[in-house]
Amino acid sequence: MDDTSRDEGINTIRILVVTDCHLGYMEKDEVRRHDSFQASEEICSIAEKNQAKFVLLGGDLFHRNKPSRATLVKAIEILRRYCLNDQLVQFQVVSDQTVNFANLFGHVNYEDPHFNVGLPVFSIHGNHDDPAGVDNLSAVDILSACNLVNYFGKMDLGGSGVGQIAVHPILIRKGLTSVALYGLGNIRDERLNRMFQTPHAVQWMRPEAREGCQVSDWFNILVLHQNRVKTNPKNAINEHFLPRFLDFIVWGHEHECLVDPQEVPGMGFHITQPGSSVATSLIESESKQKHLLLLEIKGNQYRPTKIPLNSVRPFEYTEVVLKDEPDIDPNDHSSILEHLDKVVKKLIERSSQKANNGSSVKLPLVRVKVDYSGFMTINPQRFGQKYVGKVANPQDILIFSKSSKKFGKEAKFDDSERLRPEELNQQNIEALVAESNLKMEVLPVSDLDVALHNFVNKDEKMAFYSCVQYNLEGTRSKIACDSDLVKFEEDDIILKVGECLEVRIFNSFT
Amino acid sequence: MDDTSRDEGINTIRILVVTDCHLGYMEKDEVRRHDSFQASEEICSIAEKNQAKFVLLGGDLFHRNKPSRATLVKAIEILRRYCLNDQLVQFQVVSDQTVNFANLFGHVNYEDPHFNVGLPVFSIHGNHDDPAGVDNLSAVDILSACNLVNYFGKMDLGGSGVGQIAVHPILIRKGLTSVALYGLGNIRDERLNRMFQTPHAVQWMRPEAREGCQVSDWFNILVLHQNRVKTNPKNAINEHFLPRFLDFIVWGHEHECLVDPQEVPGMGFHITQPGSSVATSLIESESKQKHLLLLEIKGNQYRPTKIPLNSVRPFEYTEVVLKDEPDIDPNDHSSILEHLDKVVKKLIERSSQKANNGSSVKLPLVRVKVDYSGFMTINPQRFGQKYVGKVANPQDILIFSKSSKKFGKEAKFDDSERLRPEELNQQNIEALVAESNLKMEVLPVSDLDVALHNFVNKDEKMAFYSCVQYNLEGTRSKIACDSDLVKFEEDDIILKVGECLEVRIFNSFT
């Protein structure tokens, strides 16, 4: 190393940026159970090889809110093997660490005298591993207690209402370079959306100017884990909500790899969206090559380098519109099967050709989206039987769609929506209410949505009970209070109850 | 320290012996949620104060097979705070550590160069935190992966049948003292019982004699976690099953504190039963003062010192036989209430007097066992309401029993049985089968018992499926095999199926 590069090294912070590892995804599938762990192993070895100073995770390190013992043990093993070593950590955290890291120990992991941390990992939580329960703990808190991960960006949202949060950056110094790292662990999109539109609800804490160091000397990074795709603007975070002082944004949650930093016009910052390291939806955008981002920061400048992930299971995707295929006879079931067989074989072949170039010998994931308008559907399980041992997902190679309005945009949106893995369809309650022709008189549908989500995704057994209690009490106290002011007839109570509901819906949505 | 005591120190191994901490017990109870953690904190600080060289745990460190995030985090925090420090570990593990510690790292935790372990903890699993699932992992494996606990005594039992196990000791040396530490994590009592009665099924591996060191120089300790109380001898481990070369036995699982080593006549070893550090059953034997054992070993000699646990919640117990009380009128409900009130008040008073001596200010646990033969029962919840804020368990102060044959022994046994917390009553399936007048033709009741246990206690969703599959396949292959040898009529198949069942029951019980 000559003097120039050594000088460069002293002032350069090299960060490996990764998101959505979904450890434990498909852990019960015989073929795919190791995928998420192998990708994470590769990520760690890439960090090592590229001498990253630290790893920055954008949430959803775990696939499940309550990871299995096996997943926890494997996660700990990987982190322990790669993060504990004799490497010297060459940067300092100069902010108030007790504010940044809200665990019992209150310091960055490599400063703990009883651990040999050589590769620090900083992580926010995602929607899959978000804090829950009485103690508001995330699975990431377990890794934080073990001193293997620096968990940050956990906000105290308080009770109901819009609430207020203050985002305190981790201030990192290396030589002449100063990085302010802001983290915002996943918050329900509707809620965060509302907060961003409420004055002063989100406070961005800026480092103070000090002697010989101006506020503008800080390179400001934000890592967040939210919907970015705007099918429903209320249910996603608009990039223009974010403050202009930011320089660089790491967007977690969206699984499509759009790792090259994109400029947001008029905002002055760039966004990288590394995407997941394991495909959790068999859709086109997850079939693209997965990458990580190596981000080198020196002063106010940065250099992004994308690094391919090679351990990812190959995934081939295509779409077929049955009525456009000349070799298919709508009255001949076997001609459909034959055609689809050809398509699948071609995909497998394509995958094995790629494999010859690389080193991967994994069974590929294969997905054919079949527009079957005007045709009978076929049984995907039976179709897949002959591909057992040839593809990783014989049971769901085929997926059928009927809407044939496939003119670009609309279909794309349809797919992008499905990018978020195993999310609960929160329209369910609304649909159920509409279907059953119910008139909701006390409970707002939105509250039931939240309760259903918490009940299913977070095992909060009291979710519905709390939801009912909260709304009953709200209604009761409002009516009691009103009846103190103006006397009204008992018959009016139903009317009053309705009014209360409207007020609560209004309060929660505006 | 003078020369003699220093000399003593060099050759003395000081071990703090603890069992059944049941971390997370009552974690959702507003009053008692911290009890198990506070006891464990005290245990660790006792280890520190007494300069124990290591802590030996006899199983059931966790109360639940799948501890909550909060319990895991608290357990990790306690261990991290007390076990990681700058103390020098002054003993060596000279056995094959990859055999002793079956995790990925395969060494005793204080030898890991990336951790500063000053107080090693060695633990077997109990029946509450036993290994389960495809990967056969215990909650203790999580602590082992974190390098906070040296988990040993996990046996590979193989599939069905009696099986065979080899118990490899951890060989510990300190100066001239050599300890062979044998660990036997909990195995279902019926199974272990059978193994002990099958020649060569349990192999005790002895250290080899080496130059200047005879086999007899080793001080042999066994730690196990099994039923000891012999209501049903098939369902407990007889002390006489254990090999005579052992010097000292740590018996986990039984919650009554019988910490003073008891000699087993004719066997040449002593047994300590430290009991739980938190009362999980409100029975007389758990109301006694809880203790730990400090075991100092020098050569072939040992000195046991019992140390009281002071953080344990006070617990007062008494029994009342209503018909023996002169101030109660069977026809006057309020006279019963008044009498019981007096009894409870007296217990609370007794507890607060003890508290004045010590430092405890915790609300006491209070339990009155009421023999109500010839009387109407009363509602324990309603009775307890006035004791909210005065006792820790207002909802279950009273427990009613009817059998009035209370002449010592029998009643004692009844209680001892209930010492094992939240165990599944395995008679359920048998009762169910008998009640429903079912004739079991393929499935042995004992297999269904095991399946039920695994389904409920270990969340093994496939437990019943596997049980059915195993027995179906066994039956099928036996019949197929038999019909190859001797041709028989189709009508005989039902007979054959019955024979198969009998053979399997015979094999599993003898």
What does this structure look like?
The structure is a homodimer of 510-residue chains. By secondary structure, chain A is of the alpha/beta class. Chain A has helices spanning 3-11, 35-49, 69-83, 97-100, 139-145, 189-196, 333-357, 380-384, 409-417, 427-435, 445-457, 463-485, 493-509, and strands at 12-18, 54-57, 92-93, 121-123, 150-151, 165-167, 170-174, 177-184, 202-204, 218-225, 248-252, 258-263, 270-273, 291-298, 301-308, 315-321, 365-371, 398-401. In chain A, strands 3-7-8-10-11-13-12 form a seven-stranded mixed beta sheet, with no helix packed on it. A six-stranded mixed beta sheet of chain A has the order 5-4-2-1-14-15. The first copy, chain A, has a three-stranded parallel beta sheet with strand order 16-17-18. Chain A has three domains: 10-308, Metallo-dependent phosphatases (Purple Acid Phosphatase, chain A, domain 2); 315-412, Mre11, capping domain (Translation Initiation Factor IF3, 2-Layer Sandwich), CATH 3.30.110; 429-508, no CATH class. In chain A, strand 1, helix 2 and strand 2 form a beta-alpha-beta unit. Chain A is built from 13 helices and 18 strands. Chain A is globular. In chain A, helix 2 packs parallel to helix 3, helix 11 (445-457) runs antiparallel to helix 12 (463-485) and helix 12 (463-485) packs across helix 13. Chain A binds chain B through residues 28, 66, 68-70, 72-73, 76-77, 80-81, 84-85, 104-105, 113-116, 133-135, 137-139, 141-142, 145-148, and chain B through 28, 66, 68-70, 72-73, 76-77, 80-81, 84-85, 104-105, 113-116, 133-135, 137-139, 141-142, 145-148.
